[in-house]
Amino acid sequence: MDLKRLGLACFVGLVLFGAFVGTVSASYIDTGEGTYPSIAGTHNGTITPSHDVEVSKMFIYPCAGTGGHSEYIRIWNESWEITATWKGYRGDWHNISFDAEFILKAWEEYNYTIRTGSYPQMIHKQHHTTLDGSLITCEKFVDVNGKSYDNWIPAIRLGTPPKPPSITDVGVVDLFQGANIHWETDVPATSQVEYGKTPDFGFNTTLDEELCFHHFVRVDNLEPDMIYFFRVKSRNAVEVEAVSDGYTFATYGSEEITVNFTNLTYEPVTEKPTGWFETGQDADIVLGLNDFGKATPTIFNHPMKIATDGGRLILADTWNNRVLIWNSIPTEINQPPDLVIGQKDLNSSEPGLAADKLNWPVGVATDGQHLLVADSENNRVLIWNEFPTENGTPADLVLGAPNFTTMGTGIGVGPDEMRKVFEWPWDVFTDGTRVMVTSTVGGRVLIWNKFPTENYQPADVILTYELGLRTPRCAYFDGQHLLVGDYNARKTFVWNELPDSDDEPYDFTLWQESDEFAWAISVVDGKLLALTGNHMPIWNEFPTNETDAPDIIFGEVDFGRLLRGVSPTAASFEASHGGMAATADHLFISCYNQHRVLIYNSIPSSNITLADVVLGAADFETNTLKKNYAVLECSTPCSDGEHLFVGNDFSRCLLVYKKLPNESIAKPDIVYENLPASGVTVYENKLIIAARGDAKVYIWNKLPLNGEMPDIVIGPEFGDGTKLMQPWGVAADENYLFVSDIEANKIFVWEGGVPEAERDPDFSIAIAWPYQLSSDGEHLAVIIREPASTLLWNLPLDKENLSPDVELKDMEKDGIEIRFNGPQGVSVDGEHLFVGDTAWSRVFIWNEIPTNNETAPDIVLGQENFEDTFPHTTRDGLFIPGAISFDGSYLWVGEFKFSNRLVRFPVK
Question: Could you give the C-alpha distances from 480 to 504, 526, 542, in angstroms and in order?
Answer without folding.
Answer: 15, 11, 11
